Amino acid sequence: MPRAGGFRFLFRVPDRRTGPAFLPIGCPAAVRLEATDLDANPFKRTDITEAERNRLLDKLDQSELSRPRNPRRGTARVEYRVRDIPLSVNHPGGGVGRYIVLGRNLSTGGVSLLHAGYIHPGSECRLALTLPRGGAKTLIGTVVFCRLAAGKIHEVGVQFKDKIDLAEFAVPEAKRLSDDPESRACSAPIHGTALLIAASEAQKRLLTTRLRQSGLDVTAVDNAGAGADQARLLPYRVIVCDMALPEPGPEALLKRLRENGYTAPVVGAAAEEGPADAQRAADMGMNGCIQRPVNHDAMHRMLLRVIRESGGAEADAPIRSSMAGETGAEELIEFFINHARQACAAITSAVSAGDAAAVRKECHGLKSIAGGYGFQSVGEAAKQALTALDATMSIDESMPKVQALLNVCSRLSADAVAGRAA
């Protein structure tokens, strides 16, 4: 069997069932015919769902970003979450393995892949990376590490024989993200409010800071009962539950939330380093887990993913004033946004206290002035909340409209980009 360096390969577009074939140039016709038969030479596929892949990649990113950068690594890496990468490996003991693998990250000197199996370090290999304008480029490399990531999935590091130009594969330095909707939104703030349930003051302080860095307002309570009650009152984009929550604990809380009809995502917050809490959260049916040590980038990406998967990302676009871009309007817009935030905080407190009169007062105030600052949608939402309160005289029955007002206010933006007059 010739070694990988002994011939060149042609790349054929993958078949979704068996994968692509590498065809040696100059080999006998009979051999070429056999090589093109995908049933005779199938590529073994790393077959995991999109959600499983994203969870695993988020976990790896969170774990790695929390550690100091390796000074031996000479080149920076970019995220490269690409599916269906054909890989051909010459095993040290003889034979060629052909696989369809998943990408994790890419640098000028190598690539990190996810593969459902073990590959011996030192093995010579070839892989085909897709070019943005069509076709693919075959690269020669050597496996430099293979380590277990989760279950049967291994992370495989390949060092290229020759360095590449990242821009050729549509991952320029300025972008550093793959071209999928989640990655494009990765740096965008998450609008709305998070409910944080944690008994430890240290855990509350840390997670509150991180969640606010992602753009979320935070309401924090210290026990499961208060968390379940709060979730019935107000609209939360996500609930974050400490995995070390005292009895009745996070599992009982999750069950009560679902029984009460709460459908937004619930994620755990690991109390200790390691995979144990993340696995417990998954076993309970939570949507994800913030692992220790907390890394903001990985946490932010995970929250975006679980909110999107729960169907909560449609109404997340920023709302800008119709005055945006006008001379002298910037301070006025900033003033109103701060006022609206204070009003929403007062509404939240009044709802918790069962004070319908106070809720009505704040809604009336927003309705009266919002249009003058270019936020007509706030005025309309406040008007609908007032109508509901006057008709029912009940906070519980009016909550859908009050929630809608709070959601609108959470999306206000002072950006001077006139994209959405509100």
Give me some keywords for this one:
Four Helix Bundle (Hemerythrin (Met), subunit A); 422 residues; Rossmann fold; six-stranded antiparallel β-barrel; five-stranded parallel sheet; elongated; alpha/beta; 3 domains
> How many helical elements?
12
| Strand order within the widest beta sheet | 5-6-7-10-9-8
Distance between the termini: 68 Å
Q: pLDDT below 50 for ≥5 consecutive residues: which ranges? A: 1-41, 65-69, 172-186, 417-422
* Structural class based on helices, strands and sheet pairing: alpha/beta
| Strand percent estimate | 15-25%
Question: What's the count of strands?
Answer: 17
Helix and strand pattern: EEHEHEEEEEEEHEHEHEHEHEHEHHHHE
Whole-number radius of gyration?
Answer: 26 Å
| Major sheet details | 6 strands, antiparallel, barrel
Domain tally: 3
Helix amount: 25-40%
Write a concise synopsis of the structure shown.
This protein is 37% helix and 23% strand. The chain is an alpha/beta fold and 422 residues long.
Give structural notes.
By secondary structure, this protein is α/β, with parallel strands linked by helices. The protein folds into three domains: 4-184, no CATH class; 193-309, Response regulator (Rossmann fold, 3-Layer(aba) Sandwich), CATH 3.40.50.2300; 319-413, Four Helix Bundle (Hemerythrin (Met), subunit A). The protein has twelve helices and 17 strands. A six-stranded antiparallel β-barrel has the order 5-6-7-10-9-8. Strands 12-11-13-14-15 form a five-stranded parallel sheet, with helices on both faces. A two-stranded antiparallel sheet has the order 1-2. Strand 5 (85-90) and strand 6 form a beta hairpin. Helix 2 (50-65) packs antiparallel against helix 8 (296-309) and helix 5 (224-233) runs parallel beside helix 6. The radius of gyration is 26 Å and the shape is elongated. 37% of the residues are buried. The model is unreliable at 1-41, 65-69, 172-186 and 417-422 (pLDDT under 50).
